[in-house]
Amino acid sequence: MNNKNKGGDMSKRTVSVWTDNRFWMRSAGWVTGFSAALLIWLTFDTMSQIKMGNDEDLKNGIAKRVPGPTVINYKITYEMSDKRGHEVPVIGGKEKFFGRDDWSEKEAGALLHLGKLGSQAKNCMNCHTLLGNGAYYAPDLTKAWLDPAWGKIDSSGNRTGYLAMTGKDTREEAIAEFLMHPSQYPTHGRMMPNLNITADEAKGLVAFLKHMSSIDTNGFPRNFGKKDTTLREKRSN
Amino acid sequence: MANTLKWEGQQLATWYFTVAIVLFGAQLLMGLIAAVQFLYPSFLFEIFDFSVARMIHINALILWMVFAMVGAAYWLLPDETGIEVVGIKWAKLGFIVLTAAVTVVVVVYIVVQIGPANDMTIWFINEGREYIEAPRWADFGIAIVLVGFLLHVFLTAIKGERTGIVTVLMADMIALVGLYLCGMGFTDSISMDQFWWWWVIHLWVEATWEVLVGVFAAYGLIRIIGAQRQIVEMWLWIEVAMLFGSGILGMGHHYFWIGTPEYWWEIGALFSALEPLPLVAMFIHVTYDWGKQQGIAKAEGRDTAIANTPALAWFFANAFGNFLGAGVWGFFHTMPQVNIYTHGTQFTSAHGHLAFFGAYATILIGVFYIAVQGTNNIKRLKATFDFKMGIILLNLGVFGMTVALTISGYSQVLVERAQMGATWEAFFISQDTLWFVQGLGWRLAMGVVTLVGFIYLVKDLLSTGKNKIHER
Amino acid sequence: MFEPFTDLIPSFFGTLNQYPLGLTGFLHLVIILPMIVIYKQEKKRLENEK
Prior knowledge:
CATH topology of the largest domain in chain B: Cytochrome C Oxidase, Chain A
Low-confidence stretches of chain C: none
Largest sheet of chain B: none
CATH superfamily of the largest domain in chain B: Cytochrome c oxidase-like, subunit I domain
Strand content of chain B: under 5%
Distance between the termini of chain C: 53 Å
Largest sheet of chain C: none
Shape of chain C: rod-shaped
Helix content of chain C: 55-70%
Number of helices of chain C: 2
Radius of gyration of chain B: 22 Å
Number of strands of chain C: 0
Distance between the termini of chain B: 18 Å
Mean pLDDT of chain B: 96
Number of domains of chain B: 2
CATH architecture of the largest domain in chain B: Up-down Bundle
Oligomer: heterotrimer
Helix content of chain B: over 70%
Order of helices and strands of chain B: HHHHHHHHHHHHHHHH
CATH class of the largest domain in chain B: Mainly Alpha
Mean pLDDT of chain C: 87
Structural class of chain C: mainly alpha
Strand content of chain C: under 5%
């Protein structure tokens, strides 16, 4: 090993820190520990930002990333925000949900809870994606509540889409009916199987879907419903 | 089968490996059923639906790899520390409990499948969260056995010789087991649910599991080609620094679209973009050490440095597969500008298939071969025809599936996401496009190739121990 | 180059996010910089060893 010592300095010698195991061991320890600490700090911040909102927020028009359960009492749309540069969910005026627009926080919370439980008990994620995560056998459900395929009642009073197929007058009833008897309303060779979903469970699931569509997902999915002009209508209220 | 192994811990390892291979086989079978259903959706409709086949496919995947990793840890622990695994009798009991629990869970998956929307279903049938569908009772069981496993590792490591490899293994296992607990809760908020879900999945497959790959590769290189411990362990520390440095905050690339703040775009994208780098490091490490040791062997007049050709070959498959599957395919869609279109499509599936196989299946199969060598007291394990067929067909099969799914995914992204805006209609139209369907057809074909490769692999693992061609 | 803060809820990280590579730069720096300290300490230790 060459020795660059000039004079009589005996304490310093040429060393290679880059091939020293202890240096890398300490570096690995530091990097891991500090990254974990940063992750925890970021987690605290994120937790506060995604905490579910409540009924007061909705009444006062305070936008939350994850609204409270009583969002089911309101009309939800998905519109481009020039400020954010992507689509955002917009919570509009009151809208009836299964005949009522006065679901209390407790009632709406119970519906959402049942729906979330149902989405797990029925294993939805192993065919569908929720917020884009899951299996890719069936459509993404993030904005399923807003899907044009459910149809509407047009100006002459005719039902279109699933409203027509299920003979229902509201979107939520059509979705519930579909969930209870999916293979009776196929739109493709790849059908959804019968999962023994009861009427109550269906209601909960629809509440879950409506709530999920109100979550601010930073613009995912992009250009939702772009091809259909239904969602491009301006809010009339 | 007489136990010629010196350590009971290594014997326990072979039990874990055996269950792992059975689960691997189950995974492939379920995958084939699911692949057929994509093309022929009436196949077993309402009898054994896609959701059930897919659930068992991904659960078997995770479980076989967990079994194999635990086994690999038990295999190397006595060898590295120089002592028997502390509490080995309890460890063996843990294995029996774990295997029994897994069996019950799978039987319930197959026979009962789903339940009503209440807590009983969550406790006893299906928790319905991807990869961790196992009902809550099993969650607790798995957690207890894993904590027990952790104790065995810890107590053995502090009692015996604590090498760098063992230190990393110890620390990593603490993280790995602890993270499992993050997935055990229930919340009404889908955003909160998915936030914590990723602490298990991401910090397993893109952090702690990759570190285990480094550990097993380090151990393997010392045993198989006589690589120098100091160098191998230096590389291991570098890899750990790079893996956790990129992987921990890289978790943010799963927080783009689940309701979490926009700052995750930058953190997630730019930390996870670095995740391929440690995989490059592992690649260089394996190939460089191999070349160096071969050179030394030739210079010393020996004809090879390799004591276990199949194992080393699978380590190379890992070097390539890890970098390609996890690194390259992952990098393709880690930028939010891309991911907003590809999130939740067959593109994701393409990445997942090659990543899981290339990063984990390969190295674990390599460890299986190390165990075969040890169990049969073979000085130099050589390549057999069955081994060659196995490695070629498995790698070709999975890579072929990945390419097929990439093409399907590309078509899906173009039509469903870019052109038509991700509606119900958009989804089904894209599912019927020509490239998409053809891609799925090729995926099924390559899946069959994979299964044939697996059969050769099993044949070889069962028979090579007795083969006369090896040096003893 | 400088992006105005547009996210829903303000935060320290969101503020850093306004500057070009601000957030990633800050986080990477704060992780890597102490390695320089570790390097210096290890160098001294190795030189004084023996």
